[in-house]
Amino acid sequence: MRTIPVLISAATPADIEQIRAVQREVWLATYPNEAHGITIEAIQAQFADKGKTSQWISQVKQALITSESSGWIAKYKKSLSDYIATHPLV
Q1: Cα–Cα distance, 36 to 52 (Å, whole number)
Q2: 35, CA 20 to 30 Å: which among 27, 61, 67, 87?
Q3: 18: three-class secondary structure by DSSP
Q4: 47-83 pLDDT tens trace
Q5: Where on the phi/psi map is residue 40: left (φ > 0), alpha (ψ -120 to 50), or beta?
């Protein structure tokens, strides 16, 4: 069996921008659905909106600082590869 060295740690405000990037990748891979009118372009537009992204990052940073939210990240080769969180990170 091969072991993959993954580091799990508590999410910090410094991780939020990387979490947002992973979130974008996951949404693009998971949610497009022609039958429901959810297009890749619509998802890309949501993540490209600098105002919405900036607001999301600020809200999540504040939630971590105030302990309103908590989360954990997984890093592989020093790169954030996944996260799990309580509201409002998800």
Answers
A1: 23
A2: 87
A3: helix
A4: 999 999 999 999 999 999 998 889 999 999 989 999 9
A5: alpha
